[in-house]
Design goal:
The structure is a homodimer. By secondary structure, the first copy, chain A, is α+β, with helices and mostly antiparallel strands. Among the domains of chain A are: 127 residues, Beta Barrel (Butyryl-CoA Dehydrogenase, subunit A, domain 2), CATH 2.40.110; 124 residues. Chain A is built from 18 helices and 11 strands. In chain A, strands 3, 4, 5, 6, 7, 10 and 11 form a 7-stranded mixed sheet that branches. In chain A, strands 1-2 form a two-stranded antiparallel ribbon. Chain A has a two-stranded antiparallel sheet with strand order 8-9. The termini of chain A are far apart. At the A-B interface, helix 8, helix 9, helix 10, helix 11 and helix 12 of A face helix 8, helix 9, helix 10, helix 11 and helix 12 of B. Chains A, B: It is an enzyme of class 1 (oxidoreductase). Chains A, B: Keywords: FAD, Flavoprotein, Oxidoreductase. Chains A, B: This is 3-methylmercaptopropionyl-CoA dehydrogenase. Chains A, B: Belongs to the acyl-CoA dehydrogenase family.
Chain lengths: 562, 562
């Protein structure tokens, strides 16, 4: 099994779709020219291809296990982690003040995409650290920053996120973990957390848990939640790991996939923690972390889609079948249809993720509220469409393999099992869609309409070279605009029933915009043919989706009892 | 985990959608009144709920294994098989001359649906026997029938199908297994077969393999294939299992799911076999078996969809979440959307399967070519849409469970892993779609158009009670008609690239017809609301699908190298 990093598509998207040049023109990112970025991505690509991709199957065949209270990780993961850390890929966007490279999110996003395509179970580890670094940079005291950030950035230590409890999943406000103030300004954390990805490992000097908990006087719900950093080993006065903290891994979940990533049930038993941000303001800090994590999880889907696509294509090129034109199953129209859908959707999802990364970078570099609003709109779409695409492409990858796809040794099924969780964690895709039609339309649709205006401008420009495709994109954008207006006229409860199809229709239009733009830039070849495929075949899905979004009849709870 | 057989939906569909009364009016099935059928299904339901459903998890947690060349099956499967056999559920449609009940395929189809929903891994066993019985009834000599059929029908012996070889999957004509004539009129079979479902077990007195092989003088390709029955134990002169035959299970596949069903690599080493049908006419016999098996596999998808739906609904009713109206996650609009899609699609897929069963029964009972042509059109649709629905519903079932869905102990992931193979085996769904736009349109579309005419007649009638829904169904049918005409004007190669979306659009329209008809019969309640949901939300997908079917641009093989 081999993996080749999609450097060509990254360049295409950065140049022709998301307008990366604007990022490089800001003062903040003036050193990150496109050439520099491409060189950096080339380095990361090498590491992903040579070090991480060979570990992919190990995560499945030699799963992480809990032995005497300690997590033992899959064969080779320790060395893979070391390569990630040494390359600086844990947090390439982190602040140089703490050892980061200060590169745009665009770079981190491409690197996460490649690492996910190469070995998702291992990539989830640095993704957790990235979220923690982000949260600490924004909300921690200088003292905490100084202790934790440098070691997290280099990968000497690893970070986790602890939100979920058995009775508090999507409804995070229901959590009950307690934080009691101690005399020295720290807190004693007590409670059980579940679904803690990479809650422990056997290759970093410390594991630092960001834990949501309640102070003794906290009000119920999300307004009474605070955030704490709770290390496995308490840093001593020199900042080195000291005394073992009162926390432990109770068990690992037996999951459908991602067996290389230990998903821990964690028990905090009066563990020493330090508050991050203000008391009762934990949700705000959590959202800092979660917003970027949503982009991160979205590109997990994109990365796996790429890996699964390449894996299926290699099989289709290899599997002899006399009756077809090419002598292989690639000669069959339906096999090409599947592969074209996989490739076209992966490209679309990647372009959406990078558009979000650019919006985040521009928002940060310029402080412009419009960029921040743009990022707000794109976040749930990048997360949900990226992960849905990962799941769909991986399933098509199994199908391309025929019976071989169902046999585990082939590796196709692993992509499908591994990626299946991504539409669930970091806010289910249903929650992403509710965020889009809810909070993200609270501006009366301003950010959405400005995005649709831009797409129509591109479509107008595209009419010069490929009028039929450009017209289809323009029409679809208009349908999406009308659907948005329709949703805006409704109350929230009524919007929510159509939220998921609306989000998907939005992604279809964004994907069409991306395909049209690269096709206009690279006319007459495979890129144009793929764009034509997407726009004539996949974009039309948007009309049914918009109809679904606008249909208001939803069976009532009682109907399911019938 | 509990499973309740969907007896209400069976009755609804038999009465209001597929016109079962016509079957009961034929001489052949005059004893199978609707009341009798309902009573029979009630008995099967009890067995599925009480005996099979409790075995579902065992198939996953205690997989079939090969020990010293012998397959050891999952805990409880032997007893489960005994209950299936004793109830007469292995082959309720088999000829009474050989001990069958002679019931319509409608009954077998409903029973297969229920057994699949209760425990797919075990149900696959009698499904294999059903195919073998069908093939022997139609093609075997009287002598072979007398030896094999009674024991297969009672379940004393079990049957398998042996088509695939490592180099010959969908391209069955590439197979190389040899059959050399022996002096006693039997043949020596030599070769390796793969993906043999239930190739062995530890609970039947014999395992009888139907094996495709080549006679010494056979021409290459499918025209040189003959069919043989090759028993594990060679029947002695009294018809009882005698000498061990020269065949063996080499290994079991390590699959994504269906762990309770041993998928064998079989080696035939000069094993004694008897020819079934004429020399070099094996493909015709195989198709007898495969056509019914396609319906059988289609309802495997439907059955698993039902099981996964019930399992997810139970969770949604149980999972407390304070913020919702009902106090559970069922109060969330998006959870109800998912469950409504699951329920509405399961109903649609079931109605299509039963329409096919009725067409098969009517074709057999009346000999009418129009019914046979109807069955021909519905076969690929029932197979592909049934299994796609199973896969989609099971994946949504995981999603409804949130994080719990990814944890194996919950059982949601098992449905998804188990059912994933159904879109691959018994002819991949791509092959089904090629059959639909290829062979099944060779009559110039006559059978398809007659079906569409009927749907439009129903829609006209439906306008009395629910004009908006009926109009939507009528319009969608017209779009499908135009798409069909469009495909007919093209050559085959050009049709194949749009075959899968065309098949799905067809299923969407058939499903809408079924929902409209039950809604007209049961107005004003949950049934009507579900029909409204399907027709306003899921039916609109057909327009994008028809657009896909009509788009002719498909990337060329070279484009994927780019």
């Amino acid at each position: 099994m081999t993996y080749r990093a999609p450097l060509g598509d990254f360049s295409r998207i950065l140049k022709h779709v998301v307008g990366y040049d604007r990022v490089a023109e800001t003062t903040l990112f003036e050193e990150a020219s496109l050439e520099t970025v491409e060189a950096v991505l080339g380095e990361a690509a090498k590491m992903c291809e040579e070090v991480m991709a060979p570990l992919q199957r190990n995560g499945d065949t030699d799963p992480a296990v809990l032995e005497n209270g300690v997590v033992r990780t899959s064969k080779g993961f320790a060395e893979g982690y070391k390569a990630i850390a040494e390359g600086g890929w844990i947090a390439s966007s982190a602040d140089p003040a703490h050892g980061g490279m200060g590169l745009p999110m665009v770079v981190t996003t491409c690197v996460n995409d490649m690492m996910s395509g190469a070995c998702l179970a291992l990539q989830l580890n640095p993704l957790m650290s990235q979220g923690q670094i982000e949260a600490l940079e924004h909300h921690a005291s200088d003292a905490l920053k100084e202790i934790y950030l440098p070691k997290l950035v280099t990968g000497e230590w690893q970070g986790t996120m602890n939100l979920t409890e058995p009775q508090a999943g999507s409804d995070v406000g229901a959590l009950t973990t307690k934080a009691e103030p101690l005399d020295d300004g720290s807190y004693a954390i007590t409670g059980q957390k579940i679904y803690i990805s990479w809650g422990d490992n056997d290759f970093t000097g410390n594991v630092c848990h960001l834990v949501l908990a309640r102070l003794p006087d906290a009000v119920p719900g999300t307004k009474g939640i605070s955030l704490f950093i709770v290390p496995k080993f308490i840093p001593d006065e020199t900042g080195e790991p000291g005394q073992r903290n009162d926390l432990r891994v109770v068990s690992l979940e037996h999951k459908m996939g991602l067996h290389g990533s230990p998903t821990c049930v964690m028990s905090y038993e009066g563990a020493k923690g330090w508050i991050v941000g203000e008391p009762n303001d934990g949700m705000r800090a959590m959202f800092t972390m979660m917003n970027n994590a949503r982009l991160g999880v979205g590109v997990q889907g994109v990365g796996v889609a790429e890996g699964a696509y390449q894996h299926a294509l290699a099989y289709a090129n290899d599997r002899k079948q006399g009756r077809s034109d090419t002598g292989t199953i690639l000669g069959h129209a339906d096999v090409r249809r599947m592969l074209a859908e996989m490739k076209a959707d992966t490209f679309a999802a990647r372009a959406i993720a990078l558009a979000l990364a650019v919006a985040l970078d521009m928002g940060r570099a310029t402080g412009d509220a419009a960029w921040k609003a743009r990022a707000g709109v794109l976040t749930p779409i990048a997360k949900a469409f990226g992960t849905d695409t990962g799941i769909d492409v991986a399933s098509k990858g199994v199908q391309v393999h025929g019976g071989m796809g169902y046999v585990e040794e082939t590796g196709a099924a692993q992509y499908m099992r591994d990626v299946r969780v991504t539409s669930i964690y970091e806010g289910t895709n249903g929650i992403q869609a509710m965020d889009l039609v809810g909070r993200k339309l609270m501006d009366g649709g301003e950010a959405v309409f400005s995005l649709l205006d831009e797409i129509e401008t591109h479509a107008e420009a595209g009419k010069e070279h490929m009028p039929d495709l450009a017209e289809a994109v323009w029409q679809a954008t208009e349908t999406l605009r009308e659907t948005t207006e329709d949703l805006l006229a409704r109350d929230m409860a009524d919007r929510f029933g159509g939220a998921v199809p609306y989000l998907r229709a939005f992604a279809r239009v964004l994907g069409a915009d991306a395909h049209l733009r690269v096709a206009c830039a690279e006319r007459g070849g495979a890129v144009e043919r793929l764009a034509r495929f997407y726009i004539t075949r996949l974009l039309p899905e948007h009309s049914g989706l918009c109809a679904q979004a606008r249909a208001s009849d939803l069976p009532a709870a009682e109907d399911f009892a019938a």
